[in-house]
Amino acid sequence: MTQERGADRTERPGPAGFAAFAAAAWPRLVRTAHLLTGDFHEAEDLVQTTLAKVYSRWQRIPHDEVDRYVRTALVNNNRSRVRKKRVTQLLLPFLPEQAAGGRPGPDEAVEQRAVLTEALSGLSVRQRTVLVLRFYEDLNEQEIAAVLNCSVGTVKTHTRRALAALRGHPSFARTLAPESST
Amino acid sequence: MTFEPENEQLRAAFTEAAGGVRPSPVPLAAIERRGRARRRRKGVGLALAGGLLAASSAVTALHVAGSPAPGRPPAAAVAVPPLTVALGQQVAAGYGLVVWLTADGKYVQVPGRDVEFTPKVDGAQTSGVNLQAYPVSHGWFVSGVFLGHGRAGRVEITTVDGAVLHTRVLQLPGDPGWGAFFVPLSLPLTAVPGTSPFHIAVTKVAVYDTKGHPITTSTFPG
Question: Which three-class secondary structure state does DSSP give residue A17?
Fold first, then answer.
C-alpha cells in the first residue's frame, strides 16, 4: 500500500498529471475507503466523490501535499457521508439500503475480512478512522491528529477506546494476542 | 496503549481485509466530469473564498449577485453580540425557523421542510465562507457557515447597494475553528428575479474576530 503513495505524480500539473495520479491512487484509496465504510460500493462512491473534488482543485494543491490532501478529503467526505446517512435514517421509517443489506463486493466472504468489517462497524466514525489510518495507512499519532484536525491526546483516546471495543468483540478478539490486554 | 505483537496482528488483519478488495477500473471520465461540474458551480459563486462549499441541495441552484429588490432602503448597521451555543441548542430565527449546531455542522429547520444540514468542512479546506438560502413565506432565509480559527466577533454581509448587514452569529464554545450565521428575516436581504436561477443581493461576507481582525472574507461577483 505504501509503495502506491505518490506514484506517477511526476507529470503534474495538468489533466494528464491528475489522470496518472488518479490511476495510481485509486486502488489504495478504494481499499482505505472500504475499511472506513465497510461497503464496496460506498467505498468506490466515496473515492470517486473525493477525487472529483481533488480534480476541481488540482492546479492549486501543492505537489508535495497531494497525498495528505487526498487522505484528509477522504476522511472528511466519509464523515459527511455518515452524517447524511444519519439524517436520512431520522427522516425515513426505515433505510432501504440497510434493510436490503449491503451488496457484497468481491471476496467479501473471506472470513478475516468479514470479521474485521463487523468489528469495525461497532465503532464510532472517528474511532474507526483512527484505526484505519494507524493500522492500514500506517500513520503515526501526530499525522492522524493532523488529518482529523484534533490533538494527539484525542487520537490516543480514540485509539484506546477503539481497541478496547475490538478486544471485546467476540469474533475479532480471537485475532488478537490473548496476552495483549492494554 | 497496545503491545507490539497486537499492533502487528492488527496491521496484518487490516492489510488482509484491504487486500481482499478488488477495485473496479478507475472511472476517470466520470471523476473528471464531476470535477469539472464542481468547478463550474464554484465559478458562478455558489460558494467562494477558500472553497468551503455548501452542501444543501436546496441551494445548489442559487448564486450570489445581482441587485437588491427595488424600494428597499439600505439597512442600518446594528451589531448583535455573537451567541455561544451548546451542541444541539436550538436558536429561533423567526417565523418558525430554527438553527442549531452540532460538532459536525449547521442545521436549519424550515417549517414544512426537511432539516437542512451544512457540514462545517468540505474536503480538506481550512478556511472560507459559504451561503445557503431557503425560500420561506417572508422571502429568503439566508445563512452560512464560516471556517477559520478564532472567536467570531461579528459577521457582516455587504449588499450590492453598499449596506452592511450584521448577521446573527452562532459558535460553539472554545475555538471550534468554525461557526455559523444567519440574516434575520427583518433585514432587507432578498432574492430578486434575474438571470437563471436567482440572484441574492450580496457582494461580500466578512467574518471578524472579537478584536476586529478578519478571520475570513468572501467577495462575490456582482
Answer: helix
Of B9, B31, B105, the CB nearest to A176: B9
Question: pTM score, two decimals?
Answer: 0.52
Answer yes or no: do B1 and A55 touch at CB < 8 A: no
Q: What is the per-residue pLDDT across B137-186, written as a single tens digit (0 to 9) for each?
A: 666 788 888 988 888 999 998 877 778 888 999 999 988 889 999 988 76
Element (H, E) at A97: helix A96-100
| Residue found by looking up cell 432565509 in the block | B141
Does B3 map to a domain?
Answer: no
| DSSP symbol at A38 | S
Domain limits at A13? 1-105
- Give the closest residue to B219 by CA, choosing from B205, B201, B209: B205
Total residues found in chain A within this entry: 182
CB of A44 within 8 Å of any CB in chain B? yes
Asked if A60 and A97 sit in the same domain, the reply is: yes
pLDDT in tens, A8-62: 444 455 666 888 889 889 999 999 999 999 888 889 999 999 999 899 888 888 8
> Cell numbers of A17, please?
498529471
Residues A94 and A13 placed together within one structural domain of the fold: yes
Domain with B71, as residue range(s), is 30-219
Number of domains observed in the structure of chain A: 2
Task: Looking at the structure, tell me whether residues A98 and A125 fall in a common domain.
Answer: no
Mutate to test the interface with A, among B4, B15, B21 (most CBs of A within 10 A): B21
The percentage of chain A sitting over the pLDDT mark of 70, rounded to a whole number, equals 71
Q: What is the DSSP letter of A13?
A: S
Q: In this complex, do A131 and B104 lie within 8 Å of one another by their Cβ atoms?
A: no
CATH number at residue A142: 1.10.10.10
Contact across the interface for B23 and A27, Cβ inside 8 Å: yes
Cα(A172)–Cα(A174) distance, rounded to whole angstroms?
Answer: 5
Q: How far apart are CA B205 and CA A45, in angstroms?
A: 33
Asked if B17 and A117 come within 8 Å (Cβ–Cβ), the reply is: yes
On whether the CB atoms of residues B124 and A73 are closer than 8 A, the answer is yes
